[in-house]
Amino acid sequence: MINKTRWIKKKFIGVDFSGSARAGNLIWLAIGVYENGGLKIIDCRRARDLPGGGIKRDLALTALRVFIGQQKNAVVGLDFPFSLPQQLVEEVSWENFILSFPGKYNSPGNFRKACFEAAGRQELKRKTERESKAPFSPYNLRLYRQTYFGICDLFYPLLKNDQISVLPMQEPETAKPWLIEICPASFLKHEGINISYKGRSECDRQEKYRARQEILGFMENTKSVRFELPELRETILNNRGGDALDSVIAAYCTLKVDGEIVPAYEVGIEGYIYY
């Protein structure tokens, strides 16, 4: 059971993000509500299935941005870095960093190259990545596109139009959706789960399916996560990339924020990963 006595937000949304050219196929959203001491997942879908969505990245991210902006009564967890290591940030505030980002980096490749060179050809991590044992630097080869498009195509327009509160760097305004950074890999490490559950090849299809079953069973049995419809559970298990399952983990992580916000002065410009 989740030990909570009061709730500010009513919905808890997890987003497994992607900066791929076909992001609409890879971005998954899990939408949950707090009920009977746990998280009930009421929907789980791809970004391509959002109103106005599509497979191509620009359509998917536009649809996701509109969707997030409409979630006034929700905490939304996204799994891309919300900032960079302090050494690589010239701006005096996180908001200024976001608003200057598109003008400073005109492509994902330019972003990665600039960070890599400014860091002395090292992949630096933020304090929160070291503490949470997140696997990659924000500009790592496997992550830099997510960081770039997450900031440029989601945060920049949403922040510019004053539609969101991004925690803990900003004050949590009740009339706006609250956005937090999460990391499913950090959550699983913290819980002592170290099994491979992602893979699309036929040779290990059953093995990965059983791994997803094990993780989902753990979420159900120890974290009070359940599903409104049995078909939702099967959808998540049958997603071989593991993105649907990651979105469920992200949705669960958003529960920690309601009434338990990390003080902004502790994270500064670098941000904080909830796990």
**Sheet with the most strands, sense and barrel status:** 8 strands, mixed
Low-confidence stretches: 1-5
Helix content class: 40-55%
Q: Approximately how much beta-strand content do the residues carry?
A: 5-15%
CATH topology: Nucleotidyltransferase, domain 5
* Assigned CATH architecture: 2-Layer Sandwich
Work out the radius of gyration.
Answer: 18 Å
Q: Structural class, from helix and strand content?
A: alpha/beta
Number of discrete helical segments:
10
Which CATH class is shown? Alpha Beta
Question: What's the SSE pattern?
Answer: EHEEHEHHHHEEHHEHHE
Q: Would you report the number of β strands?
A: 8
Distance between the termini: 17 Å
Specify the overall morphology. Answer: globular
Number of domains: 1
Mean pLDDT value: 93
